[in-house]
Design goal:
Keywords: DNA-binding, Transcription, Transcription regulation. The chain is α+β, with helices and mostly antiparallel strands. It contains 18 helices and 11 strands.
Length: 434
Protein backbone atom coordinates (compact mmCIF):
# COMPACT_ATOMS: atom_id res chain seq x y z
CA UNK A 1 0.00 0.00 0.00
CA UNK A 2 1.40 3.36 -0.92
CA UNK A 3 1.97 6.02 1.78
CA UNK A 4 -0.85 8.19 0.41
CA UNK A 5 -3.34 5.37 0.79
CA UNK A 6 -2.40 4.22 4.31
CA UNK A 7 -5.03 4.42 7.10
CA UNK A 8 -2.71 6.52 9.29
CA UNK A 9 -2.37 9.11 6.53
CA UNK A 10 -6.14 9.18 6.15
CA UNK A 11 -6.62 9.78 9.87
CA UNK A 12 -4.10 12.63 9.77
CA UNK A 13 -6.31 14.81 7.56
CA UNK A 14 -7.04 16.99 10.58
CA UNK A 15 -7.62 20.72 10.91
CA UNK A 16 -3.90 21.46 10.74
CA UNK A 17 -3.90 20.33 7.09
CA UNK A 18 -7.02 22.29 6.12
CA UNK A 19 -6.50 25.98 5.36
CA UNK A 20 -9.72 27.44 6.82
CA UNK A 21 -11.64 26.38 9.90
CA UNK A 22 -15.42 26.01 9.44
CA UNK A 23 -17.11 29.40 9.65
CA UNK A 24 -13.88 31.41 9.26
CA UNK A 25 -13.99 34.62 7.22
CA UNK A 26 -11.67 34.11 4.20
CA UNK A 27 -10.97 37.83 3.77
CA UNK A 28 -10.05 38.35 7.43
CA UNK A 29 -7.95 35.20 7.51
CA UNK A 30 -6.11 36.32 4.36
CA UNK A 31 -5.33 39.69 6.01
CA UNK A 32 -3.96 37.92 9.09
CA UNK A 33 -1.78 35.72 6.90
CA UNK A 34 -0.39 38.71 5.01
CA UNK A 35 0.63 40.33 8.31
CA UNK A 36 2.21 37.07 9.46
CA UNK A 37 4.05 36.70 6.16
CA UNK A 38 5.46 40.22 6.43
CA UNK A 39 6.58 39.48 9.99
CA UNK A 40 8.35 36.33 8.86
CA UNK A 41 10.09 37.93 5.87
CA UNK A 42 11.21 40.87 8.01
CA UNK A 43 12.17 39.16 11.28
CA UNK A 44 12.24 35.42 10.59
CA UNK A 45 9.61 34.64 13.23
CA UNK A 46 6.26 32.95 12.57
CA UNK A 47 3.21 34.20 14.52
CA UNK A 48 1.33 31.39 16.25
CA UNK A 49 -1.92 31.45 14.19
CA UNK A 50 0.02 30.23 11.13
CA UNK A 51 -0.44 26.48 10.66
CA UNK A 52 2.56 24.29 11.52
CA UNK A 53 2.73 22.80 8.00
CA UNK A 54 2.96 26.34 6.57
CA UNK A 55 5.43 27.61 9.17
CA UNK A 56 7.74 24.64 8.51
CA UNK A 57 7.48 25.22 4.78
CA UNK A 58 8.27 28.95 5.14
CA UNK A 59 11.40 28.06 7.08
CA UNK A 60 12.49 25.51 4.47
CA UNK A 61 11.83 28.07 1.74
CA UNK A 62 13.97 30.69 3.47
CA UNK A 63 16.80 28.21 4.08
CA UNK A 64 16.72 27.35 0.36
CA UNK A 65 17.29 31.01 -0.47
CA UNK A 66 13.84 31.69 -1.95
CA UNK A 67 12.89 35.38 -1.93
CA UNK A 68 9.28 36.56 -1.43
CA UNK A 69 9.43 38.55 -4.67
CA UNK A 70 10.80 35.72 -6.80
CA UNK A 71 9.16 33.86 -9.64
CA UNK A 72 9.17 30.37 -11.12
CA UNK A 73 11.57 29.59 -13.93
CA UNK A 74 10.63 27.54 -16.99
CA UNK A 75 13.01 24.59 -17.30
CA UNK A 76 11.43 22.68 -20.17
CA UNK A 77 9.71 23.99 -23.28
CA UNK A 78 8.44 22.83 -26.67
CA UNK A 79 9.97 19.58 -27.88
CA UNK A 80 11.96 18.93 -24.71
CA UNK A 81 8.82 19.28 -22.60
CA UNK A 82 6.88 16.97 -24.90
CA UNK A 83 9.60 14.32 -24.84
CA UNK A 84 9.94 14.48 -21.07
CA UNK A 85 6.18 14.28 -20.48
CA UNK A 86 5.85 11.32 -22.84
CA UNK A 87 8.44 9.39 -20.80
CA UNK A 88 6.97 10.25 -17.40
CA UNK A 89 4.88 7.58 -15.60
CA UNK A 90 2.07 10.07 -14.84
CA UNK A 91 1.42 10.45 -18.58
CA UNK A 92 -0.34 7.10 -18.34
CA UNK A 93 -2.94 8.43 -15.88
CA UNK A 94 -3.54 11.86 -17.44
CA UNK A 95 -6.77 10.61 -19.07
CA UNK A 96 -7.97 9.62 -15.58
CA UNK A 97 -7.02 13.05 -14.14
CA UNK A 98 -8.93 14.77 -16.95
CA UNK A 99 -11.97 12.54 -16.48
CA UNK A 100 -12.15 13.07 -12.72
CA UNK A 101 -11.05 16.72 -12.49
CA UNK A 102 -11.38 18.31 -15.94
CA UNK A 103 -15.02 19.38 -15.70
CA UNK A 104 -14.63 20.47 -12.08
CA UNK A 105 -11.69 22.70 -13.04
CA UNK A 106 -13.34 24.18 -16.12
CA UNK A 107 -16.76 24.77 -14.50
CA UNK A 108 -15.30 26.24 -11.33
CA UNK A 109 -12.77 28.47 -13.13
CA UNK A 110 -9.96 26.40 -11.61
CA UNK A 111 -6.87 24.71 -13.01
CA UNK A 112 -5.87 21.06 -13.00
CA UNK A 113 -2.09 20.78 -12.66
CA UNK A 114 0.23 17.78 -12.49
CA UNK A 115 3.88 17.99 -11.46
CA UNK A 116 6.74 15.51 -11.41
CA UNK A 117 8.71 14.38 -8.35
CA UNK A 118 10.89 17.49 -8.55
CA UNK A 119 7.93 19.89 -8.48
CA UNK A 120 8.20 20.64 -12.21
CA UNK A 121 4.78 21.26 -13.77
CA UNK A 122 4.03 18.82 -16.59
CA UNK A 123 0.41 19.71 -17.40
CA UNK A 124 -1.69 22.77 -16.54
CA UNK A 125 -5.24 22.63 -17.90
CA UNK A 126 -8.65 24.11 -17.13
CA UNK A 127 -10.54 27.37 -17.43
CA UNK A 128 -9.05 29.51 -20.24
CA UNK A 129 -9.22 32.86 -18.40
CA UNK A 130 -7.72 31.34 -15.26
CA UNK A 131 -4.90 29.84 -17.33
CA UNK A 132 -4.06 33.22 -18.80
CA UNK A 133 -3.96 34.73 -15.31
CA UNK A 134 -1.74 31.90 -14.07
CA UNK A 135 0.70 32.49 -16.92
CA UNK A 136 1.62 35.85 -15.35
CA UNK A 137 3.27 34.00 -12.47
CA UNK A 138 4.73 31.26 -14.70
CA UNK A 139 2.30 28.61 -13.47
CA UNK A 140 2.76 26.88 -16.81
CA UNK A 141 3.94 23.48 -18.07
CA UNK A 142 7.71 23.13 -17.82
CA UNK A 143 8.08 25.58 -14.90
CA UNK A 144 9.62 24.41 -11.65
CA UNK A 145 7.36 24.86 -8.62
CA UNK A 146 9.32 22.97 -5.99
CA UNK A 147 9.66 24.50 -2.53
CA UNK A 148 13.35 25.10 -3.11
CA UNK A 149 12.51 27.11 -6.25
CA UNK A 150 9.40 29.13 -5.36
CA UNK A 151 8.71 28.39 -1.71
CA UNK A 152 5.43 27.22 -0.17
CA UNK A 153 2.83 26.07 -2.72
CA UNK A 154 0.55 23.04 -2.84
CA UNK A 155 2.18 20.89 -5.56
CA UNK A 156 5.76 21.69 -4.47
CA UNK A 157 5.03 21.25 -0.77
CA UNK A 158 3.01 18.06 -1.33
CA UNK A 159 6.05 16.54 -3.02
CA UNK A 160 8.39 17.87 -0.30
CA UNK A 161 6.42 16.48 2.67
CA UNK A 162 4.87 13.50 0.79
CA UNK A 163 1.27 14.12 1.86
CA UNK A 164 -1.83 16.06 0.73
CA UNK A 165 -1.51 19.80 1.33
CA UNK A 166 -3.82 22.81 1.03
CA UNK A 167 -2.31 26.31 0.70
CA UNK A 168 -4.49 29.40 1.06
CA UNK A 169 -3.73 32.99 -0.03
CA UNK A 170 -0.73 34.48 1.84
CA UNK A 171 0.34 31.05 3.05
CA UNK A 172 2.14 31.02 -0.31
CA UNK A 173 5.72 32.16 0.19
CA UNK A 174 6.00 34.26 -2.97
CA UNK A 175 3.83 37.37 -2.94
CA UNK A 176 2.63 37.18 -6.52
CA UNK A 177 1.10 33.76 -5.79
CA UNK A 178 -0.81 34.93 -2.71
CA UNK A 179 -4.10 35.73 -4.53
CA UNK A 180 -4.42 32.00 -5.26
CA UNK A 181 -5.52 28.93 -3.31
CA UNK A 182 -4.51 25.37 -4.17
CA UNK A 183 -4.70 21.79 -2.93
CA UNK A 184 -2.44 18.95 -4.02
CA UNK A 185 -1.73 15.31 -3.19
CA UNK A 186 1.32 13.20 -4.02
CA UNK A 187 1.01 10.24 -6.38
CA UNK A 188 3.17 7.18 -5.68
CA UNK A 189 4.48 4.29 -7.70
CA UNK A 190 2.25 1.50 -6.38
CA UNK A 191 5.06 -1.03 -6.69
CA UNK A 192 7.89 0.86 -4.99
CA UNK A 193 6.14 3.61 -3.01
CA UNK A 194 8.34 6.24 -4.68
CA UNK A 195 6.77 9.66 -5.19
CA UNK A 196 6.12 10.17 -8.91
CA UNK A 197 4.73 13.68 -8.58
CA UNK A 198 1.52 15.37 -7.44
CA UNK A 199 -1.93 16.25 -8.74
CA UNK A 200 -3.17 19.75 -7.93
CA UNK A 201 -6.26 21.93 -8.16
CA UNK A 202 -5.57 25.69 -8.23
CA UNK A 203 -7.97 28.63 -8.24
CA UNK A 204 -9.68 31.11 -5.94
CA UNK A 205 -10.69 31.24 -2.27
CA UNK A 206 -13.48 28.74 -2.85
CA UNK A 207 -10.89 25.95 -2.84
CA UNK A 208 -10.04 26.68 0.81
CA UNK A 209 -12.50 23.99 1.85
CA UNK A 210 -11.87 20.53 3.33
CA UNK A 211 -13.61 18.97 0.30
CA UNK A 212 -10.92 20.15 -2.14
CA UNK A 213 -8.19 18.49 -0.06
CA UNK A 214 -10.15 15.25 0.16
CA UNK A 215 -10.91 15.47 -3.55
CA UNK A 216 -7.28 15.62 -4.72
CA UNK A 217 -6.34 12.86 -2.29
CA UNK A 218 -9.07 10.63 -3.73
CA UNK A 219 -7.90 11.41 -7.28
CA UNK A 220 -4.30 10.57 -6.33
CA UNK A 221 -5.44 7.24 -4.89
CA UNK A 222 -7.41 6.46 -8.04
CA UNK A 223 -4.30 7.18 -10.12
CA UNK A 224 -2.20 4.85 -7.97
CA UNK A 225 -4.82 2.12 -8.35
CA UNK A 226 -4.81 2.51 -12.13
CA UNK A 227 -1.00 2.47 -12.28
CA UNK A 228 -1.05 -0.80 -10.33
CA UNK A 229 -3.27 -2.34 -13.02
CA UNK A 230 -1.20 -1.15 -15.97
CA UNK A 231 1.56 -3.53 -17.04
CA UNK A 232 4.98 -1.95 -17.46
CA UNK A 233 5.59 -0.78 -21.00
CA UNK A 234 8.16 -2.89 -22.85
CA UNK A 235 10.49 -1.22 -25.34
CA UNK A 236 9.48 -1.66 -28.94
CA UNK A 237 11.36 -4.33 -30.83
CA UNK A 238 13.01 -1.83 -33.19
CA UNK A 239 14.34 0.57 -30.53
CA UNK A 240 18.02 0.74 -29.61
CA UNK A 241 18.93 2.04 -26.15
CA UNK A 242 22.47 2.36 -24.83
CA UNK A 243 23.25 2.67 -21.11
CA UNK A 244 26.85 3.70 -20.41
CA UNK A 245 26.70 6.00 -17.37
CA UNK A 246 28.08 4.66 -14.11
CA UNK A 247 29.25 1.38 -15.62
CA UNK A 248 32.47 0.15 -17.24
CA UNK A 249 30.64 -2.17 -19.60
CA UNK A 250 27.72 -0.62 -21.44
CA UNK A 251 24.41 -2.34 -22.05
CA UNK A 252 22.58 -2.18 -25.37
CA UNK A 253 18.89 -3.03 -25.62
CA UNK A 254 18.06 -3.87 -29.22
CA UNK A 255 15.41 -6.05 -30.87
CA UNK A 256 14.20 -7.23 -27.47
CA UNK A 257 17.74 -8.38 -26.54
CA UNK A 258 19.96 -7.04 -23.76
CA UNK A 259 23.60 -7.13 -24.79
CA UNK A 260 26.41 -6.54 -22.32
CA UNK A 261 29.34 -5.12 -24.25
CA UNK A 262 33.05 -5.39 -23.57
CA UNK A 263 34.82 -2.20 -22.55
CA UNK A 264 36.24 -1.60 -26.03
CA UNK A 265 32.92 -2.32 -27.73
CA UNK A 266 31.25 0.00 -25.22
CA UNK A 267 33.62 2.79 -26.22
CA UNK A 268 33.01 2.23 -29.91
CA UNK A 269 29.24 2.25 -29.55
CA UNK A 270 29.27 5.41 -27.39
CA UNK A 271 31.28 7.22 -30.07
CA UNK A 272 29.23 5.98 -33.02
CA UNK A 273 25.96 6.83 -31.24
CA UNK A 274 27.35 10.33 -30.78
CA UNK A 275 28.31 10.62 -34.46
CA UNK A 276 25.37 9.38 -36.56
CA UNK A 277 27.13 10.74 -39.65
CA UNK A 278 29.85 8.15 -39.07
CA UNK A 279 33.60 8.12 -38.38
CA UNK A 280 36.45 7.03 -40.59
CA UNK A 281 38.85 4.34 -39.47
CA UNK A 282 41.54 6.94 -38.72
CA UNK A 283 39.10 9.04 -36.68
CA UNK A 284 38.03 6.03 -34.63
CA UNK A 285 41.64 5.00 -34.14
CA UNK A 286 42.57 8.41 -32.69
CA UNK A 287 39.43 8.53 -30.56
CA UNK A 288 40.00 5.10 -29.01
CA UNK A 289 43.74 4.59 -28.59
CA UNK A 290 46.38 6.68 -26.84
CA UNK A 291 49.06 4.36 -28.19
CA UNK A 292 49.88 5.47 -31.73
CA UNK A 293 51.39 2.08 -32.49
CA UNK A 294 47.95 0.43 -32.58
CA UNK A 295 47.29 -0.53 -36.19
CA UNK A 296 44.10 -0.24 -38.27
CA UNK A 297 44.05 -4.04 -38.44
CA UNK A 298 43.44 -4.18 -34.66
CA UNK A 299 40.53 -1.79 -34.96
CA UNK A 300 39.01 -3.66 -37.89
CA UNK A 301 39.14 -6.89 -35.89
CA UNK A 302 37.30 -5.24 -32.98
CA UNK A 303 34.65 -3.87 -35.33
CA UNK A 304 34.18 -7.27 -36.97
CA UNK A 305 33.61 -8.85 -33.55
CA UNK A 306 31.17 -6.07 -32.60
CA UNK A 307 29.23 -6.54 -35.86
CA UNK A 308 28.77 -10.24 -35.08
CA UNK A 309 27.52 -9.44 -31.56
CA UNK A 310 25.06 -6.78 -32.75
CA UNK A 311 23.70 -8.88 -35.55
CA UNK A 312 23.31 -8.00 -39.21
CA UNK A 313 22.44 -4.55 -40.40
CA UNK A 314 23.16 -2.25 -37.42
CA UNK A 315 26.86 -1.49 -37.99
CA UNK A 316 27.94 -0.26 -41.43
CA UNK A 317 31.36 0.76 -42.76
CA UNK A 318 32.95 3.43 -45.02
CA UNK A 319 32.50 5.36 -42.79
CA UNK A 320 31.80 3.31 -39.70
CA UNK A 321 28.29 4.21 -38.57
CA UNK A 322 25.11 2.90 -36.99
CA UNK A 323 22.30 2.38 -39.47
CA UNK A 324 19.56 3.22 -36.94
CA UNK A 325 19.36 5.84 -34.16
CA UNK A 326 20.67 4.67 -30.80
CA UNK A 327 19.40 6.64 -27.80
CA UNK A 328 22.04 6.80 -25.08
CA UNK A 329 21.68 7.90 -21.46
CA UNK A 330 24.49 10.38 -22.18
CA UNK A 331 22.40 12.17 -24.78
CA UNK A 332 19.42 12.27 -22.40
CA UNK A 333 21.48 14.09 -19.75
CA UNK A 334 22.96 16.47 -22.33
CA UNK A 335 19.54 17.27 -23.80
CA UNK A 336 18.02 18.03 -20.42
CA UNK A 337 20.99 20.17 -19.41
CA UNK A 338 20.73 22.14 -22.64
CA UNK A 339 17.04 22.75 -21.90
CA UNK A 340 17.86 24.01 -18.41
CA UNK A 341 16.16 21.02 -16.78
CA UNK A 342 18.87 20.57 -14.17
CA UNK A 343 16.98 18.31 -11.77
CA UNK A 344 15.81 16.09 -14.63
CA UNK A 345 19.40 15.87 -15.89
CA UNK A 346 20.63 14.95 -12.41
CA UNK A 347 17.98 12.23 -12.18
CA UNK A 348 19.15 10.69 -15.46
CA UNK A 349 22.85 10.87 -14.48
CA UNK A 350 23.68 7.53 -12.87
CA UNK A 351 27.43 8.11 -12.74
CA UNK A 352 30.47 8.97 -14.86
CA UNK A 353 30.55 7.71 -18.45
CA UNK A 354 32.46 4.40 -18.66
CA UNK A 355 34.57 5.42 -15.62
CA UNK A 356 37.36 2.93 -16.31
CA UNK A 357 37.81 3.93 -19.96
CA UNK A 358 41.11 5.52 -21.01
CA UNK A 359 39.99 6.19 -24.59
CA UNK A 360 40.83 9.87 -25.22
CA UNK A 361 37.49 10.80 -26.80
CA UNK A 362 35.46 8.98 -24.14
CA UNK A 363 37.46 10.65 -21.36
CA UNK A 364 36.72 14.07 -22.88
CA UNK A 365 32.98 13.36 -23.08
CA UNK A 366 33.00 11.99 -19.52
CA UNK A 367 34.77 15.09 -18.16
CA UNK A 368 32.63 17.53 -20.14
CA UNK A 369 29.35 15.90 -19.05
CA UNK A 370 30.28 15.75 -15.35
CA UNK A 371 31.63 19.32 -15.32
CA UNK A 372 28.55 20.66 -17.10
CA UNK A 373 26.17 18.99 -14.66
CA UNK A 374 28.05 19.92 -11.48
CA UNK A 375 28.37 23.53 -12.67
CA UNK A 376 24.62 23.66 -13.25
CA UNK A 377 23.94 22.16 -9.82
CA UNK A 378 26.16 24.71 -8.09
CA UNK A 379 24.47 27.55 -9.97
CA UNK A 380 20.98 26.20 -9.15
CA UNK A 381 21.70 26.13 -5.36
CA UNK A 382 19.10 23.43 -4.75
CA UNK A 383 20.14 21.76 -1.45
CA UNK A 384 18.58 18.40 -2.34
CA UNK A 385 20.27 18.17 -5.73
CA UNK A 386 23.62 19.28 -4.27
CA UNK A 387 23.31 16.74 -1.46
CA UNK A 388 22.54 13.93 -3.92
CA UNK A 389 25.72 14.75 -5.85
CA UNK A 390 27.88 15.24 -2.75
CA UNK A 391 26.87 11.91 -1.24
CA UNK A 392 27.31 9.94 -4.48
CA UNK A 393 30.62 8.06 -4.96
CA UNK A 394 31.70 10.51 -7.68
CA UNK A 395 30.91 13.59 -5.56
CA UNK A 396 32.10 12.68 -2.09
CA UNK A 397 35.41 14.54 -2.62
CA UNK A 398 34.01 17.38 -4.76
CA UNK A 399 35.10 20.42 -2.74
CA UNK A 400 33.19 22.98 -4.82
CA UNK A 401 29.92 21.08 -4.46
CA UNK A 402 30.41 20.66 -0.69
CA UNK A 403 31.05 24.39 -0.37
CA UNK A 404 27.89 25.14 -2.35
CA UNK A 405 25.93 22.70 -0.19
CA UNK A 406 27.25 24.30 3.02
CA UNK A 407 26.00 27.67 1.80
CA UNK A 408 22.40 26.47 1.37
CA UNK A 409 22.26 23.67 3.97
CA UNK A 410 24.63 24.67 6.80
CA UNK A 411 24.20 21.60 9.00
CA UNK A 412 26.88 20.29 11.35
CA UNK A 413 27.36 17.17 9.20
CA UNK A 414 27.92 19.20 6.03
CA UNK A 415 30.33 21.60 7.74
CA UNK A 416 32.25 18.69 9.25
CA UNK A 417 32.73 17.03 5.85
CA UNK A 418 33.68 20.34 4.24
CA UNK A 419 36.28 21.02 6.95
CA UNK A 420 37.78 17.56 6.41
CA UNK A 421 38.03 18.11 2.66
CA UNK A 422 39.62 21.54 3.07
CA UNK A 423 42.07 20.08 5.57
CA UNK A 424 43.04 17.33 3.13
CA UNK A 425 43.53 19.91 0.39
CA UNK A 426 45.79 22.03 2.62
CA UNK A 427 47.88 19.07 3.81
CA UNK A 428 51.42 18.73 2.34
CA UNK A 429 51.78 16.11 -0.43
CA UNK A 430 52.19 12.59 0.94
CA UNK A 431 50.76 13.47 4.32
CA UNK A 432 47.22 12.68 5.44
CA UNK A 433 45.52 15.47 7.40
CA UNK A 434 44.01 14.46 10.75
Amino acid sequence: MSPAASPSREAELTDSWVALEPGADPAEHARMLRRAHETFTAAGTVPKPVRAVVADSWRRSARAGVGPDGTASVELADGDLGAYRAEHPLARVMPLFRELMGSFAADGEHLLAVCDEHGRLLWVEGHATTRRQAMRMNFVPGARWSETAVGTNAPGTAVAVDRPVQVFAAEHFIRRVQPWTCAAAPVHDPRTGRVLGAVDITGGDGLAHPHSLGFVQAVARAAESQLALIAPVSPAADTHQLSALGRDEAQLVTGGRRIRLSRRHSEILVLLARHPEGLSGDELLCALYEDESVTPVTLRAELARLRRILGPGLLASRPYRLTAPVESDVSVVERRLAAGAVSAAATAYSGPLLPGSQAPAVARIRRRLADGLRTALIARRDPDLLADWAHAPWGEDDLDVWRALAAVRPTATVHSRLAALESELAAPPGRVAR
